[in-house]
């Protein structure tokens, strides 16, 4: 049976790389809320037009609207069949409660834990490729030599912006880990990506095995 996983971590914790590895190995449908919102806006759906109007005024997308968009995605046949890996949702306790009220359940919450000073170093070492929009890190995820000269520093990758993001993140983390205490696993993400992935992979395999045991096998009509 497919499983649904929340991947939660601070900016610079390695969520993007970990997501790619999990999707490649297990075939999850990857949900990035930021990408989902941009897609709704580009396709000019009713929800997308609402988001565009809100963002044009410089406001954050309300929790109820984010939940509407995510729930629409989660109930699509492909997502139901493969299971979903969520990156960037839920971000708030309100979002977690709202999606739970709609009957959607998660099997595992992986919380990537990284030391504060290391997160700051990763933030200041982050670079974006303006051509592909791929994000690299000069310390732990270096770019190939052919793209180095065109890489750029994002405007919000400063110590001041990072400190502000971390203040918000820590509040959200405490609330969400408490809400999902029955399925939340803290993963030490200070080491190499290979070591981190090996650690959390064990948790994912455990959940998948547990889900498979829940399958109901119907007897063959020929027996």
Automatic annotation (TrEMBL):
PROSITE patterns: ADENYLATE_KINASE. Transmembrane segments: none annotated. Belongs to the adenylate kinase family. It comes from Strigomonas culicis. This is Adenylate kinase. The keyword Nucleotide-binding applies. GO terms for molecular function: AMP kinase activity; ATP binding. CDD domains: ADK. Keywords: Kinase, Nucleotide-binding, Transferase.
């Amino acid at each position: 049976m497919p499983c649904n996983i929340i991947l939660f971590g601070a900016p610079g914790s390695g969520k993007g790389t970990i997501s790619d590895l999990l999707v490649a190995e297990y075939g999850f449908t990857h949900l990035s809320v930021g990408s989902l919102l941009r897609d709704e806006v580009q396709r000019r759906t009713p929800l997308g037009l609402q988001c565009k109007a809100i963002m044009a005024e410089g406001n954050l997308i309300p929790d109820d609207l984010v939940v509407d968009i995510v729930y629409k995605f989660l109930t699509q046949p492909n997502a139901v069949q493969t299971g979903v890996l969520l990156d960037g949702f839920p971000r708030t306790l309100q979002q977690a409660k709202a999606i739970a009220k709609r009957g959607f359940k998660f099997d595992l919450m992986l919380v990537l834990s990284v030391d504060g000073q290391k997160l700051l170093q990763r933030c200041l070492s982050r670079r974006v490729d303006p051509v592909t929009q791929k994000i690299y890190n000069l310390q732990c995820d270096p770019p190939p030599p052919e793209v180095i000269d065109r890489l750029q520093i994002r405007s919000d990758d400063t110590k001041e912006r990072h400190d502000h993001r971390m203040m918000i993140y820590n509040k959200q983390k405490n609330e969400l880990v408490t809400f999902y205490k029955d399925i939340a696993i803290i993963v030490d993400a200070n080491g190499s990506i290979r070591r981190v992935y090996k650690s959390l992979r064990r948790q994912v395999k455990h959940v998948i095995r547990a889900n498979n045991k829940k399958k109901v096998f119907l007897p063959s009509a020929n027996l």
